[in-house]
């Protein structure tokens, strides 16, 4: 698991909603995700770091996850762990 800690963050592939949505609807969906995500487990500080990383450019995102102790399993941040092995 520790070998995965060195994986470099990369920009994810573009995502497309199955139906047309507005920018406001997309922002609301993102806010709802980040508001509810910590309730599924894990520490709030790690969720906050992942949100900051997801909203930053790739170089800053890398620095954020490294400083927060996030173990990046998938380079697009779709699968991450904290140092205790909790999945995010």
From TrEMBL:
Domain DC-UbP/UBTD2 N-terminal: 6-86
Gene3D superfamilies (UniProt xref): Ub domain-containing protein, DC-UbP/UBTD2, N-terminal domain
One Pfam family, short name: UBD
InterPro entries named in the record: DC-UbP/UBTD2_N, DC-UbP/UBTD2_N_sf, UBTD1/2
Protein's UniProt name: DC-UbP/UBTD2 N-terminal domain-containing protein
Organism from which the protein derives: Aegilops tauschii subsp. strangulata (Goatgrass)
């Amino acid at each position: 698991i520790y070998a995965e800690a060195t994986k470099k963050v990369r920009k994810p592939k573009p995502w497309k909603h199955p139906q047309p949505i507005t920018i406001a609807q997309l922002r609301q969906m993102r806010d709802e995700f980040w508001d509810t995500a910590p309730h599924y487990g894990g520490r709030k500080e790690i969720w906050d770091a992942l949100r900051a990383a997801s909203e930053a450019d790739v170089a800053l995102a890398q620095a954020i996850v490294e400083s927060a102790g996030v173990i990046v399993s998938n380079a697009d941040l779709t699968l991450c762990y904290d140092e205790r092995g909790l999945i995010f």
